[in-house]
Amino acid sequence: MATRSLPGRESPEFTAALEALRHVRLRPEVRITEVPAPQRIAPYAVALTADVLGSAGDDEELASGRFVLLHDPSAPEPWGGEWRAVTFARAELEPELAADPLLGEVGWTWLVDALAGRGVSATAEAGTVTRVVSQSFAGLADRPASVEMEVRASWTPIGPDAGTHLLAWSDLLCTIAGLPPLPEGVVALPGPRR
């Protein structure tokens, strides 16, 4: 995993976090790609994007998102620790959900449930849930209305296992995509190499 860090300075903690991320086994519907990490936010960073695809052989994108893990040994005050997970998840929903006044609360609950479901310990959680409604007019009037939900969230991981935070975020992506949760004790068989 190529990452961004300060030249000439290694962080054993960040190296261990990268190793944990490398060993995460995600559902076969989730395809991960490493992308350039943000600059100037923290001395150490890694960024991943993901697409949740439909059933085997179906390349329809059901959801997409980004997971960024930041490490700053100086523990910036707003973070409340040395680590920060910054995430984004987006999916198209059924048009009738556009008017649902609880859609924001539902989206945030999906995140909270994903973290709790993986036993993730975190602090300083923050985020937004946005719905985007698109209607077409004139020459595009035959297109149906579409609704997208975006969940943007960040939290400060407590504990050393970055992989569990990545798993919780991927659970959120799968929930937004409409995939049913895997039953307790069932592990998804590995799909093609990501």
Q: Rg from C-alpha positions?
A: 18 Å
Order of helical and strand elements = EHEEEEHEEH
Give the N-terminus to C-terminus distance in angstroms: 12 Å
* Helicity, as a percent range: 10-25%
Structural class by secondary-structure content: alpha+beta
SS field, number of helical segments: 3
Could you say which overall geometry the principal axes of the C-alpha atoms support?
elongated
Q: Please give the oligomerization state of what you see.
A: single chain
Strand fraction: 25-35%
Largest sheet: 7 strands, antiparallel
Q: On the 0-100 scale, what is the average pLDDT?
A: 87
By DSSP, the count of extended strands is 7
Uncertain regions: pLDDT < 50 for 5+ in a row? 189-194
Protein name: Enoyl-CoA hydratase
Organism: Knoellia flava TL1
Pfam families: DUF3000
Characteristics:
194 residues, alpha+beta, 7-stranded antiparallel β-sheet, disordered C terminus, DUF3000, Enoyl-CoA hydratase
Descriptive account of the structure:
Strands 1, 2, 3, 4, 5, 6 and 7 form a seven-stranded antiparallel beta sheet that branches. This protein has helices at residues 12-22, 103-117, 162-177; strands spanning 4-5, 30-35, 44-53, 61-71, 83-93, 122-134, 146-157. It has 194 residues and is an alpha+beta fold.
Fold topology:
Blueprint: E1 4-5, H1 12-22, E2 30-35, E3 44-53, E4 61-71, E5 83-93, H2 103-117, E6 122-134, E7 146-157, H3 162-177
Helix pairs in contact: 1-3, 2-3
Protein name: Enoyl-CoA hydratase
InterPro entries: DUF3000
Pfam families: DUF3000
